[in-house]
């Protein structure tokens, strides 16, 4: 396996690949309705793209208020710490621009992953696009 690297992406320049990854994960695999996946916040978000070599395999976005979301890794690369690399890059960028608190809405099955990265559950369970979620928060030191 090649080295995994994560870079900041442009919603305009990298739109096709960002959409392809999210469409594969959320719309095709998890049956999230397209109208819930695509929103106006993408234009103002900082996007991240993970690669194995030159192949794009994962993405996430950071909103101006510190919300990290749309964390998605293509099926064949799950369990290989791609999500860790994406989240570390997103957290580092949030801290670099002064967002001391990062927040996210996590699918319940993924809460242990986020807890390992310092996030804590701060809500009860709720449904988002028919999938159980909880709100989580991480405060930088």
UniProtKB/TrEMBL annotation:
Residues 4-141 form the N-acetyltransferase domain. One of its GO terms (molecular function) is acyltransferase activity, transferring groups other than amino-acyl groups. Pfam families: Acetyltransf_10 (PF13673). It comes from the Bacteria. Keywords: Acyltransferase, Transferase. PROSITE patterns: GNAT. This is Predicted N-acyltransferase, GNAT family. It comes from Pseudomonas pohangensis.
